[in-house]
Amino acid sequence: MDNAQQRLYSFSKPRSQPRTSKGTSDDESPYGDSKFIQKRNYSQKWKALPWQFSLSGHLSPWPTFASGQTVLQNQKPCSDEHRKRPSWQHHPLGIAKPKYLEQLENYLRKELLLLDLGTDSTQELRLQPYREIFDFFIEDFKTYKPLLSSIKNAYELMLAYQRDKIRTLEPLKAKLVTVNEDCNQRILAMRAEEKSEIATLKNEKMNLLKLIDKKNEEKISLQSEVSKLRKNLAEEYLHYLSERDARKILIGDLNELRYQREDMSLAQSPGVWGEDPVKLTLALKMTRQDLTRTQMELNTMKANFGDVVPRRDFEMQEKTNKDLQEQLDSLKADYEEVCKEHELLLQSYMMTLKERDQFSAELQEIQRTSTPRPDWTKCENVVAGGSERWHILAEGKNSDQLVDILLEEIGEGLLREKDFFQGLGYGEDVPVFLQCEGSVENKKPTKKFVVKLLKDAWKERLTDEKKKFQDFFISFLEHRFGPSEAIAWAYTIFENIKLFRTNEVMSQFYAVLMGKMAESVYNNYRDTVAQLQKEMKNADSQNEGLLTSEQFSNILKTTFPLKKEDAIQELMEAGGWHVGNIADVLNYPFLFMESEEGQSEPFVQKLWEQYMAEKEAYLQELQQQLGLKLNQEVTLSKLRKALMTIDPSLDKQTLSAYLSQAFQIPESELPDLEKEKEGEEEEEEEESTAVELQKVLERLHIADTKRMGPREPEPTS
């Protein structure tokens, strides 16, 4: 019998009787109390019970064998699986759970029951029976003892760490509960105070409203009384006037009657003739003097007050005069406004008349010199793809753009037919990436491939910005295609990007490669587009990809605060929002999509067009501020003063960058122009750095020149 069979026989031989601990029965726990399990010696512990085996002597795989019986019973007896099945699987008789497993389960069940009956049992104490069972496994299975011990130690360390962490967090939990209760109490107290204040304010509001209503009623009643009193006063005034006139008439009648009565009494009195003649003569004389004096006073009164009107008529005439004066002042103001409007209209009419004459002359000149408008439908049969592709290319394009498209189509066909390029040599005016002699192979790539290659070059440029752009371009091609194919690909890519000027990706790469545009222009433009896209995503709180017209307009105004309303409206129309558009929302991710050939959407194209137009307007304004012709020279101080005049928001760093670009002088060597120059030497030094205005504008056009803030308004006279 070999060693393997002996080991198998020793495992399959059942034990005569199970070991029991001293003083315990089969029903009791064979391991004693769990609190003293670690204090026993290994000699006093139970040894692991042997595994149960099948009738044929093989090791029993319970419970996997028992669970697999139902599957194997459905197979045919003559199949290959039935022949290959071990002998102990052909006779599944007497399958039972191992006794050692039953004893461990009984022990675990009893220990758990004892812990549940206790009053101070905790979750950590309930783990002790499981620890003991695991210790039995470790001691009985010698082969797996190191692995099981490491597993147990790992779990014990983790439990200890979690226990310490819970112990440290318990005070924080109590403090959190206390703070929560305190905050709740404060909130309730504040709400109670607010309720009382709100109730008080409501009552005060009601009282004030009642008081206002009462005052309004009093005001209405007082107004009615005032109007009534005015009416009564007018009636009384008229009544007193009539009474005064009647009184004067009555006084006159009474005086006349009194004079008549005196005359009658004198005529009828018998004693009159008996008076003294001297006395009568004297009385007559005095009476005549009184009559004369009275007549003089009457004449004086007539002379002084002959033209005086009654006070009532005077007041009425004065009121009428005041109303007429107010009407006159109002008419004078209206007349002055009408005169001003007339002058403005007259000026506008003269300007319109002048523009009409100018436009008429231009129209006549254009009619005289212009050629007939070309019939672009003739290109449908020439362009590859037929009329359908030509309609796609010509949609929304003017004649100049259609000429560019037609030239690109013709040039693309000629470029496809050319198999080799002629090398330009090693001259100084030849770019680095084109320096070679002889014939160079035309790789004939597709436009899609060229656009993808240029985008990869821009991505790799982010990691290698120290080299010049032309050196980087040739090193990129060498890394991509190998040193032997780099020149051929350089000629091929150069001819393609030089040809396709309407393609945004190719035209921008060509401008940067040939030094017609600074690399910072492209980077800042892409950053602006990315920032605009980020602002739209932030405004889209539901993350649905939709924006309303108000949100879209506000984002454009916030991102481009210097753009005018017509520029914002152009961007909205380019994005698909026209006047009278019925749609309430806009799918903004569609605005930033690009085709496989690098053609962006009209919104992004309009952004680039506005950027170039704003740069041109900025430089034209700078030229107007300088007041120089293109062939005249400009100095550093004049250019700085002009820049600060048209753009007062320029910071010192940006201004230095503009001056350095315009005069090709490092920023560190720029003179300090903020201080006033003194001496002829400094003036001569400044004049030596003067440059023609045309070169200055060309250099600023290459760089990222743009307005930093609004221009200060000129003071009005």
Largest sheet: 2 strands, antiparallel
How much helix, percentage-wise, in residues?
55-70%
Q: Count of DSSP helices?
A: 24
- How much beta, percentage-wise? under 5%
Write out the strand line-up for the largest beta sheet, numbering strands in chain order.
1-2
Order of helices and strands: HHHHHHHHHHHHEEHHHHHEHHEHEHHHEH
Tell the overall outline: flat
Query: Overall mean pLDDT score?
Result: 77
Taking pLDDT < 50 over at least 5 consecutive residues as the criterion, the unreliable ranges are: 1-93, 676-682
Number of strands: 6
Helix/strand-derived class? mainly alpha
Rg of Cα set: 57 Å
Terminal residue distance: 125 Å
Fold and architecture overview:
The chain has 717 residues and is an all-alpha fold. Among the domains are: 312-370; 418-516, no CATH class; 517-612, Recoverin, domain 1, CATH 1.10.238; 627-673 and 680-702, no CATH class. Helix content is 65%, strand content 2%. The chain has 24 helices and 6 strands. It has helices at residues 3-12, 64-67, 69-72, 80-84, 87-90, 99-117, 127-140, 145-268, 277-305, 311-369, 386-394, 399-417, 447-461, 469-481, 483-499, 504-513, 519-539, 549-559, 565-574, 602-626, 636-646, 652-663, 680-688, 693-702, and strands spanning 420-422, 439-441, 546-548, 585-587, 633-634, 691-692. Strands 1-2 form a two-stranded antiparallel sheet. Strands 3-4 form a two-stranded antiparallel sheet. A two-stranded antiparallel ribbon has the order 5-6. α7 (127-140) runs antiparallel to α8, α14 crosses α15 (483-499) and α17 (519-539) packs antiparallel against α18 (549-559). The longest helix has 124 residues, at 145-268. It is flat. The N and C termini lie far apart (125 Å).
